[in-house]
Amino acid sequence: MGEIADALRRAGRNEEEKPRPEARRPSDLPPVPGPASARRRVVETPAEVSAVPTDRDDEWTPRAVVVDQEGPVAESFRHLALRLQRELPPRSRSLAVVSAMRNEGKTTIATNLALALASLSADRDVALVDLDLRRPSVAKALGVECRVGIDDVLAAGEELHSARRSIDKPRLDVYPARLARELAHEILLGGPLQAVIRELEQRYRIVIIDTPPVVLVPDAQIISQHIGGCLAVGRYRQSRLNAFESMLKHIPKDKLLGAVWNEGKLVTGAEGYYYYREPQTASS
Q: Are residues 215 and 243 in contact, defined by beta-carbon separation less than 8 angstroms?
């Protein structure tokens, strides 16, 4: 992990180019631990969404903040949420969560970060948008029904409000993608992406955007042109230095806020702090 951290710090320096206006040096953000165990699950689409499922029976990683809402995993995401609110440049309201490759926990970080931000606000002022149009997974991760998706807004001219799905606890608006789009880059380039992001920024205090892997497809580079900042995600003891460095070359340096290590270790004593809480068990 030390080599990847060094690569992140080097990304904040550019000795051959003059720094861009309001350029920001990336910072190492705290690691986010993963649940002890997780298995693949199939989410049944509910008729209406009032809250994210809170059961532990299956893979609950993408919704850890509501499943483990008073535990160390949820609190680590709230720490991350508060830190990122400070790191975002002034007047910036959108944040893209990016990773170099697949299976690094990008969607898990994006969904739980949005849930954590919403849990810290009394208003409905946080939105989560799935712009990984090639392999959309936010709807499945949160158990959100998707009759009209953000992909339909971009590709077919649907109204933005028609893609909104509202969650009550916490108060979060979700804009999932409905279909896997093979030529997603064409939709992002030819559709009203910039106008959609601007409208979302006007409606919400902060907009969290899930994106495809940076190294594999050009979509995240297209998206990054229109957002306020990027958060890089790596998986603890799995992410490779060469892929991480390649990702950093494709992200505008002035928009890279830092990195977070998914499934990192908890701070010593964090688990013990919750010793007085009765553990929840899965129903059989």
A: yes
